[in-house]
Design brief:
5 helices; alpha+beta; 50% helix
Length: 214
Amino acid sequence: MRLMPDAKHGRLLAVVLLLIALLLGYLGGVHWWFVAPILKSRAEMIELRDEEARFRAIARQRDAIRDALGEVRAFEAGNPGFLVEANFDLAASALILRLQEQIDLLQAGERCALVSRTPFRGQGGGTGRNDAESDLPFEKVTIKVRMRCEMEHLGPLLHGLESGSPQLFVSELTITGRRGTPLPQGRPGAAQQGYLDVAFDLYGYLRRGAGAKK
């Protein structure tokens, strides 16, 4: 029985051991200290080059973006959908005036009469705005309205409020039928007439300008 390999197998084993030693030496003394940092730096350079290319592409679009923003600002400035007053109080007064004008157009007299109209600033204390609303470029101006009105006049009134300019909206609409009449007592036919007790929120949006007073 042979315990020692022959010369041919011994040379092959020596070559294999040498290759393993060289590989370990490369990994321990060359790759992790020199090759790996170079590969990492190359990957970072490629990433930076791609990012620079994206920035250059965005920079070439700067003029087009600036022109588009200018068009948006010009559109907003001339948009008839927003209230044009300088602050909340003036805008609320304008809403009340428009409401009264729409009521007067009906020529319904006391058959469609305004009972109360109260500006409403919403939640948020004295400013009337919470943290989320304060970051918005527009301020909601609301009037809480209560009326006594017959149905034949209520529809045209609401349509007139929502179809004009600036754009107004009606929400929280509640209608309750009442017996009796909104007319003064003693007027002929008063006891036989009925009316609707109507409550709703009338609101629009006020653009917040740099110099607007809050």
